[in-house]
Amino acid sequence: MAEPYRLVAAEISLYSGKARAYLRYKGVAFDELFASRKVIMEIVRPKTGLAMIPVLLTPEGEAIQDTTAIIDWVEARHPQRGVYPDTPVLRLASLLLELYGDEWLLMPAMHYRWHYKRKNMKLVLTEFGQIVAPRLPAFLHPVAGLPIAAFFGGNYGRALGINRTNRDAIERSYEAFLHDFDEHLTEHPYLLGSRPSVGDFGFMGPLYAHLYRDPAPGELMRRVAPRVADWVTRMNDPASAQVEHGELAPDDEVPASIDPIFRRLFSELWPVVTDTVAAVGTWVTEHPERKNIARFVGDHRFTIGGATTTRWIQSFTQWMAQRPLDAYQEMDDAVRSRADRWLQRVGGEGALSLVPPTRVQRSENRLVAV
Ligand SMILES: N[C@@H](CCC(=O)N[C@@H](CS)C(=O)NCC(=O)O)C(=O)O
Is residue 22 lining ligand 1, measured as CB closer than 6 Å? Predict the structure, then answer.
């Protein structure tokens, strides 16, 4: 039997939850290698050039960072239970939902973890301590975890634009999202029908490690959106899901019950995408000598839950956004008119016609201009 894949991951890590749920759903053999600092320094960094997780170590000896790259790698080699819808409008919808999970549900995920310290910190410090010094006696883990927690907890606010002016608004936006997703789940067990697609895995990152597992938001989710909590359980344990895996929605029609989530996507996230592609274009023009595009390419004003403040612009968002943009561009006229009718219904009229001034791609785990 071939060597299994190894996923370098941690329960507390947001994007690990996406990759883990995906690999379980695919049914490929893998084991999980705990992402201790030693593993990160001795395996992850030398092999990827980054200190980021999750990383998939393949039987052929390759190391893949980035959950989307991991999914693409595995999809290309294991066609069973494909997670990209075969039909074009559902495919576009699923890629947009992945983007939303990865880049926008990140906002409540970070807010709830770091703002509700009293409830969350025991777990968070302990698990950060296990990453830094797994061999220390358990009672010392919270102390060992303190510096790294202080780093992440101290920096997320400025980078993501989360502060006292918009905390309530982020909670409003997230609670409305929870309500909408919970309602949708009364009709469909997954985002686009009766089996998960790539958007479900994008949601699983923030909705598992932070928003389900951290005590404060976990309590909120179970209380106000128990069906979302059940969906998290299902996504993590597809074998024991009470739901028979069926088909995606028929006739390439995006279920109407998910419209409110798309409306929020287009009103909150899309302006960020538009600003991001403009800022990346400007940055590339102004830095002709730089091989790799910087992780942050300026800052901008953005609005969430009706509150406006400033955040740093992340170039990576463009790479994620290019995927639905490409899916839209590849449509023939008849399909595009169908997609346009749906986009109009959810407040996304014209949105997918966006053409980034500079295209980006990943090369050796960095972004480069094409
Ligand atoms: N877009 C990446 C993001 C990976 C990522 O941000 N991972 C976090 C942990 S969940 C990390 O390693 N952060 C370290 C850092 O930002 O320097 C993915 O999908 O894998």
Answer: no
Query: Ligand 1 centre from 68 Cα, in Å?
Result: 12
Q: Structural domain boundaries of the chain?
A: 5-77, 106-252, 258-369
Q: Residue 2: its pLDDT value, please?
A: 61
For residues 200 and 85, the answer to whether their CB atoms sit within 8 Å is no
The yes/no answer on whether domain 5-77 falls in CATH 3.40.30.10 is yes
Could you report the per-residue pLDDT of 49-83, keeping only the tens digit for each? 999 999 999 999 999 999 999 999 999 999 999 99
Q: Hey, whose CA ends up nearest to atom 16 of ligand 1?
A: 52
| Mutate which of 53, 127, 148 for ligand 1 pocket (most atoms within 8 A of beta carbon) | 53
CB 162 within 8 A of CB 170: yes
Sorting pLDDT into bands at 50, 70 and 90, what band is 361? very high
Residue type at 131 in one-letter notation: I
Rounded distance, CA 101 to CA 83, Å?
15
Q: Is the pLDDT of residue 22 over 60?
A: yes
Chain center to CA of 24: 17
- Residue-wise pLDDT for 113-167, tens only, equals 999 999 999 999 999 999 999 999 999 999 999 999 999 898 899 999 999 999 9
Collapsing DSSP to helix, strand or coil, 45 comes out as helix
List the CATH code of the domain at 106-252: 1.20.1050
Q: Using a 6 Å cutoff on CB, does residue 14 contact ligand 1? A: yes
Mean pLDDT value across residues 309-328: 98
Residues 6+ apart with CB under 8 A from 184: 191, 255, 257, 258, 261
Who's near 144: CB < 8 A, 6+ residues apart?
A: 128, 129, 132, 133, 136
